[in-house]
Amino acid sequence: MPITRTTFTIDGRNLSYLDFGGTGRTVLALHGHMSDAESFSGLAERLAPGSRLIALDQRGHGFSDRAADYSRAGYIADIAALLDHLQLESVVLLGHSLGGINAYQFAARHPERVEAFIDADGPASLGLDGQNPLQFVLSLPYAAPTRQELVDGMGSMATMFGNLVRERADGSWSLPFHPRDIVDSENQVHGDHWADWLATTCPALLIRATHGVIPREQAEAMIERRPNTRMIELDTDHFVYTNDPDGFAKAVNEFLLDL
């Protein structure tokens, strides 16, 4: 089916999203830091019939505008705004990392709008030692007059970020995120979110990467303490949808089939 990109406005900012098509239950996908809606393209190709996949470029990512803040409340307000824009009363939320935390926090605040959620490697508590693992991106250049200048300015990190750069309307090139925004956002997602994780009882799936960010002890507690929750472990790293696309899609499809 044709993929469409749409932009709408909230509080003077543009938010962009991809509609991958499909009919039936709507699954709203939320990416992690330094990613965007296109990261769910592989899942869209593998998604079983019966669902419509929509993926949001979250604030400060992809084709969505930068925001004045990257607070928990801000991300959650953007999700509500998208549902209102789409005139959807409720959806299944699917989130990776930052997006996984946003998904279960949105469910905690708007339980009537969430049929179920899938959390891919998003912890219930994160970064309580005060360290920001994304601090390294501050050395990245954000924009340059040409693609080559931008990639050259990345040095050794070009292998990781060089393929993400995009041409802007004025002909210059930039990353699809601002490094400073990423660090600010990561700082504000750190914390103890157990109350939000435990606030709802809708069906939930935790997809844990065995080499990801959720310690096994925490993951086991997440499914033991929250009713109506199951866990699938994939033997890969934090980027489960990229490095085990078939396993990721299988876990998602089986969960949706059981709803």
In short:
By secondary structure, this protein is an alpha/beta fold. It is built from ten helices and 13 strands.
Please provide a written account of the structure.
With 259 residues, this protein is an alpha/beta fold. The chain has one domain (4-127, 179-258): Rossmann fold (3-Layer(aba) Sandwich), CATH 3.40.50. 34% of the residues lie in helices and 26% in strands. The strands form three sheets. The chain has an eight-stranded mixed beta sheet, sandwiched between helices. A three-stranded antiparallel beta sheet has the order 8-10-9. The protein has a two-stranded antiparallel ribbon with strand order 7-11. Helix 3 links the parallel strand 5 (91-96) and strand 6. The mean pLDDT is 96.
Cross-sheet strand order for the largest sheet: 1-2-4-3-5-6-12-13
Please report the first level of CATH classification, the CATH class: Alpha Beta
Q: Distance N terminus to C terminus?
A: 24 Å
User: Low-confidence segments, ≥5 residues, pLDDT <50?
Assistant: none
What structural class do you assign from the helix and strand content? Answer: alpha/beta
Q: How can the largest sheet be summarized? A: 8 strands, mixed
Tally of discrete structural domains: 1
How many distinct helices?
Answer: 10
How much of the sequence lies in strands comes to: 25-35%
The CATH topology assignment is: Rossmann fold
CATH architecture: 3-Layer(aba) Sandwich
What layout of secondary structure does this protein have?
Elements: E1 4-10, E2 13-19, E3 25-30, H1 41-46, E4 51-57, H2 72-86, E5 91-96, H3 98-109, E6 114-120, E7 125-126, E8 143-144, H4 147-153, H5 158-161, E9 166-167, E10 173-174, H6 179-189, E11 191-192, H7 194-197, E12 204-211, H8 216-225, E13 229-237, H9 240-243, H10 245-258
Parallel strand pairs: 3-4, 3-5, 5-6, 6-12, 12-13
Antiparallel strand pairs: 1-2, 2-4, 7-11, 8-10, 9-10
Helix pairs in contact: 2-3
